[in-house]
Amino acid sequence: MTAKPRRPSPKPWPMKWIVVAIIVFVIGYTAINLYFRKPGRAYRPYQDSQDRATVTRLLAAGWQKLPVDTRRPVEKASADEAPATPTRDYLGIGPDLESKFAEKPKLLATIDKVVPPGSVAQGHDYSLYFTGSLSDLKAQVGELTLYRKGNELVLIPSIEPLPGTDLRSRWNDSNYWVSFPTTNLPAGRYEMRIVAKGPALVWSFTIR
Predict the structure, then answer these.
(1) Structure confidence by residue, pLDDT tens digits, 146-200
(2) Helix, strand, coil distribution of the chain in percent, nearest 5
(3) Eight-state DSSP code of residue 52
(4) Are 107 and 92 in contact (CB under 8 A)?
(5) CA distance 74 to 47
(6) What CATH number is attached to the domain comprising 99?
(7) How far apart are the first and last CA of the chain?
(8) CB of 77 within 8 A of CB of 123?
(9) Count of domains in the chain?
(10) Considering the domain boundaries, does residue 77 fall inside one?
(11) In a domain, 25, yes or no
């Protein structure tokens, strides 16, 4: 019997073509991913679920979030209105609000000073400035959030890490300017407080 001729085995791909194929795949995948990716920050399942839980609890308890405007460097306090007289209150954001946060805000160490007007005409912006101190020079104030429940207003300055590993704040205290519209707030007497890890600063003002 004559032996059947063997088929020649296929030649392996040269290594350079394998490398080229990998590069083409990576470039194509990246291009498609960037094209179809939704704008905005990346989806964070845990953080987003915590945020949704907090919003749901706050709304159920009658709290609503109000828009605020911030500005730095800080302007001097306006002398158009007589200032209110702040007093010290309890530590932190308070028992009513604290129980509504699924993840508690990271607060300034202290609120050292606040200069708030004693009154404002309805429809005008209520503006104030305050001085707050950090306990960690590798942090900064990231967001100032204002919540309202009836005639009670609570301003929460939350801190966040500075970007990078080598950046540090030059001072542990800074001034902050805050303003919010009163267009949708009925005339009357309001109590407002700014919170921190230390005692909050509380005062009353009138929307006339």
Answers:
(1) 999 999 999 999 888 777 666 566 666 788 889 999 999 999 999 999 999 999 9
(2) 20, 35, 45
(3) H
(4) yes
(5) 32
(6) 2.60.40
(7) 114
(8) no
(9) 1
(10) yes
(11) no
pLDDT digits (tens, 9 = 90+) for 106-129: 888 999 999 999 999 999 999 998
Q: Report which of residues 190 and 4 the model is more confident about.
A: 190
Domain membership flag for residue 56? no
pLDDT band at 101 (very low <50, low <70, confident <90, very high): confident
Average pLDDT over residues 77-90: 78
Amino acid at 56: T
Q: How, if at all, do strands 64-66 and 139-149 pair?
A: antiparallel
For residue 114, the enclosing domain spans 61-207
Residues 6+ away with beta carbon under 8 Å from 122: 182, 183, 185, 186, 187, 207, 208
Rounded alpha-carbon distances, angstroms, from residue 150 to 54, 62, 65, 93, 191: 19, 8, 12, 17, 10
Name which of 142, 141, 138 is nearest 166 in CA terms.
Answer: 138
How many C-beta neighbours within 10 Å does residue 28 have? 10
Q: How far is CA 128 from CA 94, 97, 125, 208, in A?
A: 21, 22, 10, 17
Asked, for residue 143, whether it belongs to a domain, the answer is yes
Q: How far apart are CA 147 and CA 100, in angstroms?
A: 12
Whole-number pLDDT of residue 46: 61
Cα(194)–Cα(69) distance, rounded to whole angstroms?
15
Alpha-helical (H) ranges within 77-125 are: 95-98
